[in-house]
């Protein structure tokens, strides 16, 4: 994926810059805690396709 492309990619919800997770092939919005998938080099900027990072991570301190 081109880095130039990343510069113009913003979150469709809050319009903030996205962070590219190279390993997971995801564009992460830290504000919304959502990760948008990149499929075949094409970012899928749909809220319905995004992964909820809150749901994916175990709750700290909850035992
Ligand atoms: Zn966002």
Automatic annotation (TrEMBL):
Please report which protein family the annotation says this sequence is part of. Answer: Belongs to the UPF0434 family.
Q: Which domain of life is it from?
A: Bacteria
- Cited PANTHER family: PROTEIN PREY, MITOCHONDRIAL (PTHR33505:SF4), ZGC:162634 (PTHR33505)
**A Pfam match:** Trm112p
Record lineage: Bacteria, Pseudomonadati, Pseudomonadota, Betaproteobacteria, Burkholderiales
Species this chain originates from: Candidimonas humi
Provide the protein name: UPF0434 protein ACFOY1_03740
**Which InterPro entries is this protein grouped with?**
Trm112-like
């Amino acid at each position: 994926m081109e880095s130039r492309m990343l510069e113009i990619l913003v979150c469709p919800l809050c319009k903030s810059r996205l962070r590219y997770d190279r390993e997971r092939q995801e564009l992460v919005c830290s504000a919304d805690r959502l990760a948008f998938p990149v499929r075949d080099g094409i970012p899928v900027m749909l809220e319905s396709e995004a992964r909820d990072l809150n749901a994916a991570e175990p709750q700290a301190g909850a035992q």
